Write a sequence for this structure.
């Protein structure tokens, strides 16, 4: 038996690649805890297993160029350092990043680099980990980028679909296959740290109660596949009012989504991208055009993504 | 056919009775929006349809005697007034209340009176309403008692089980049949208004994020029937810290529940009753004794209820 196993064993490759897709963080009503993937844009990582016990970044190309090349300062580099340290690996990784998601777009660009790098590196381990087991290292990487340990983009990238991401647990929430997201990204950079600063200060309990009710309605609507519940709940009364002024044309873009049948619309992640949820692909497509048109009226060109809410997890290859 | 129908039609009774059971409001992580019924204690209402277009309270007996007899000032009376007004009824109601739930106990006593009265009166309508349709009138009644329009006790009493109650919607959440609640009521009155006053002031966003994550974990755990998720989420980090000092022995009572296998334990409604959720009836029964013992150590006798989390709706008869 032992011989047989050896006969069929394939030498582990010393190189692997993975792609992680864009995501809508927060989903309006789940600040820092809820997110879902959106196919159509993503970051790729090529990772090489190297003998030296270090993590180094060979190069970064794509839509973002001015990222730190020092591994400790780079979100993907920091995630691999955390992985190496936790598993006490005797080897290292060399990382090449291909950025497909703009930074400061609110589409989870830093998380995608983290997850792509980890999913690729995981293929090079002698005993690869589960996607859930990669989550803590992804959180370590994300903290370097955003200054905050939150997994609302990481969870969906690791598992796919709509995911509840707490500090130490990922829970995938079912979503009807036909529900689609329109995600529109204006060419305007809003730094995550600036968007976070807008949230400083204290909050009223009444707003929390309203937001909790909305979160619960959306979760119940997803589990039951009832758009009416999501339509009632998908409204951010807590965070959106503080961040909306940072996004040119936000009110008009949101209204364009609602006018075209959105169950709800709000800021994707820290913004400035705006998303809407729709009951079918056609509505989402039409709405995305109207949303882009509203951004144009505010003076900004934009990119559009229309894809199922129940989007794909990061994939190897 | 018409004759046949008339032959078999039963004259509508001019009197009906209903019972609404105690409930655990808030359930720790769903302040003002989540609750579930607990069989074993309840308020009963006898309602008589009268020709005069008024609502009057004939008498109140049971465990609470010092309640307003003026209909406008009584929670159940106000609910019936609201119902009469909305439906523009040409007749009135005479109400007799039998209180089985102590006021100021955190077990939904005012809500139970409201719901029992409405469910009984509904039987006397020429075209009875659905339970959901009674909800707005119940909210009107509850507002008289608590000064706040919240339905976390009303929803479960109307529908049964664990219910999400927003301003205008009730959603029943599935709960495994074997999960049990231990609800322990110390003989100590904590007025709802005083418990609400403890919540004044502002809140940190971080606490809200943690509480939202807990709420989402509990909801996902209920939908999936996974106790591990509820065990992780059933912890109130927002409201409990402010109210716990108002309840003698709270920390010890909660610890007793956790020591006996509670998935989580917190304050029922506005307190001082304390509840725990358990995976089976035996654990809940044993825990309830330990919880009562801890209240005794703090100087208070108590009553115990042990019943399924998926408790019964108010019933006619």
């Amino acid at each position: 038996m032992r011989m047989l196993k050896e006969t069929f064993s394939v030498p582990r490759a010393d190189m692997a690649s993975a792609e992680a897709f864009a995501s809508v963080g927060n989903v309006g009503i789940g600040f820092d805890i809820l997110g879902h993937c959106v196919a159509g844009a993503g970051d790729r990582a090529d990772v090489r297993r190297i003998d030296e016990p270090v993590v180094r970044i060979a190069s970064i190309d794509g839509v973002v160029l001015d990222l730190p090349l020092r591994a400790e300062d780079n979100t993907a580099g920091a995630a691999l350092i955390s992985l190496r340290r936790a598993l006490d690996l005797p080897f290292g990784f060399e990382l090449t990043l291909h950025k497909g998601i703009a930074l400061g777009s609110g589409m989870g660009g830093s998380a995608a680099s983290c997850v792509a790098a980890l999913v690729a590196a995981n293929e090079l381990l002698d005993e690869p980990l589960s996607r859930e087991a990669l989550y803590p290292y992804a959180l370590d990487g994300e903290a370097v980028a955003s200054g905050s340990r939150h997994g609302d983009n990481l969870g969906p990238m690791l598992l796919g679909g709509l995911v509840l991401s707490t500090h130490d647990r990922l829970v995938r929430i079912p979503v009807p296959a036909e529900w689609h997201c329109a995600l529109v990204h204006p060419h305007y950079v809003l730094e995550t740290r600036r968007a976070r600063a807008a949230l400083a200060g204290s909050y009223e309990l009444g707003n929390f109660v309203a937001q909790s009710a909305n979160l619960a309605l959306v979760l119940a609507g997803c589990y039951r596949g009832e758009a009416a519940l999501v339509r009632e709940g998908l409204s951010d009364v807590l965070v959106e009012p503080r961040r909306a002024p940072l996004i040119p044309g936000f009110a008009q873009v949101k209204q364009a989504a609602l006018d075209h049948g959105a169950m709800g619309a709000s800021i994707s992640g820290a913004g400035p991208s705006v998303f809407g949820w729709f009951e079918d692909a056609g509505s989402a497509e039409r709405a995305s055009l109207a949303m882009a048109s509203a951004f144009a009226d505010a003076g900004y060109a934009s990119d559009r993504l229309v894809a199922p809410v129940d989007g794909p997890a990061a994939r190897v290859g």
About this structure: Chain B has two domains: 2-172, 176-308.
